[in-house]
Fold this sequence. Notes:
The chain is of the alpha/beta class and 450 residues long. It has helices spanning 30-34, 42-58, 74-79, 86-96, 98-105, 140-143, 145-156, 222-231, 246-250, 277-287, 303-309, 330-333, 336-347, 360-363, 380-384, 394-407, 420-437, 442-449, and strands spanning 7-14, 63-66, 116-119, 129-133, 163-165, 183-187, 197-203, 239-243, 260-263, 266-270, 292-296, 315-318, 324-329, 353-357, 373-379. The site of N~2~-(3-carboxypropanoyl)-L-arginine has 22 residues, from loops. N~2~-(3-carboxypropanoyl)-L-arginine (SUG) binds at residues 22-26, 29, 32, 106, 108, 111, 113-114, 142, 181, 254-255, 257-258, 365-367, 371.
Amino acid sequence: MTPSPPTLELKLDGLVGPTHNYAGLAPGNLAAAHNRHAISYPKAAALEGLAKMRLLLDLGIPQGFLPPHPRPNLGLLRRLGFTGSDAAVLRSALRQAPELLATACSAAAMWTANAATVCPSADSADHKVHFTPANLIASPHRAQESATTAQTLKRIFANPNHFVHHPPLPAAVGLGDEGAANHTRFCSDATQPDAPGVHLFVFGQPATPRQATRKFAPRQTETASRAVARLHRLDPDQVVFAQQHPDAIDAGVFHHDVIGVGHRNLLLVHEAAFANRETTLRQLRDRVPTLRIVEISHNELSLEDAVRTYLFNSQLVTTPVGDTVLIAHQACAEHPGVRQLLDRCIAQGHLDAVRFIDVQQSMRNGGGPACLRLRVELTTDQLAAVHPGYLLDAAKLDWLTRWVERRYPDQLTPDALASPDLLYSSQEAWAELDQHLSLDSSAAHRRLRA
Ligand code: SUG
C-alpha cells in the first residue's frame, strides 16, 4: 500500500467585523442573552481574534482566516420591506424593528466553527475534501451567513480535483445544521492523522421524538447530521451519531463544542454531554481503539461552570514537534477547579501545555476559542491549492492589526448600528482588505447587497 501523504490541520479563524455587537439574538446562548444591549468594542474584539491567530501561527500551525461578512446587510433589510436610500433603510429599521437592524448588522460569521462541516479526503469514498456550509436556520441573524460562506469557501478551495462543495442543506424545519461545532474527527493513531478517521456527529433534535428539552430549542437535527455524513461519502462504519443531553442544552450548551472537544485520539468531555452516554462512548472506543477519553464529572466541574468558563470550547492542537497543546480562554486560568483539571491532564500526559488567551469580546456573545475557528485537514498538495490570500503569516497579521486599528470603531451602542457612517466606513474597510490581500471577494459583496 502506498503511504498517504502527511496531513496538516489548517485553522480558518473568523475575522471579527466592524459591526460586532450584543443584541441577544442567539437562542439558548446564556452569555449572549446576559449581555444583550451592552456596549460592544469591535476594535478590541478583532484585535483579540488576531492575537489568537498569531499564537497559533507562532506554535507552527497553518493559520488562515475567513473575512467578515458585509454588514449591515442592506439587501436583507430591503427584502424585509425597508425602502429608500441606504440611510433611510437603516433609520426606519432602527425605528420600526431594531431586532431586524441588529440581525442585519450581526458579526456572528466570526464563529467559523459554525461556517461548515468539513471532512478530509482520507475519509471520503472519492478521496476529496468535502465542504457543506451550515444553513444555521435556528436564527435569522445566522441564517444569512450561509450564502456568503458558500461563496467564500468555493473561492478558497477552488480546485475541483481536491475539493467538493455541497450547497447548504435546504432551509426547512427539521434540517437545522450548525456545522463543525457539532462534528469531531478522531483518528486511531495520534501520530497518523492521515489514516482513516472516525466522525462523531452530535445533534440536539433526534429524528424520532425522544426526551425533549424544556427551555431551549435544540439547533442541530439528526436528519441534517446524517445527510452531511452521506453527502461527504463517509464509511458508515466510521461514523457515530449521538444525541446531546437535553439537560445540557437547557443549561446553555447550544452546540456540542461547549461541552466537549476532540482531536486525533483524545476526547475531553463533560459527563453531561450525551443523552446516551455509555453507548456513545462505547461506540467511539470500538471504532477508535487508542482513544483516550478524559471525562469530567459534575463533582469535578459543574455544568454551570463548564458553560461559564468554556473549558470544553478550548482548541486542541498538535504542534509540528508533536506536542498536544490546549488553547483555553482566560476564564479557565481564573477558575481554581479548572486549573486543577488542566494540571491533572498535563500530569497524566494527555496535554503537553496549556496556553491561555483573552477573547472576552467574543466570549460575551458565547463564542470561545474553538468557536472562532474552522478546522480543515489537508494534505500538503491540497494546502498548496488553497487561495493564498486567505492564508496568514506574521507580515499579514501585522497588516491586519494596523488595518483594524485604523478602520474599526472603538465602541458601538445598539443605536449606532443605524449610523450611515458605520456602513460607509465598513464598506471602505472591506474594499481595502479585499484589495490589499487579493481576496477577490468584492464582487461577492456587491451581489449580496443588490
Ligand atoms: O450562534 N452567538 C453565537 C455563538 C456561536 C458559538 N459557536 C460555537 N459554539 N461553535 C451563536 O449563539 C450572538 C449574537 C447576538 O446575539 O447578537 C451569537 O450569535
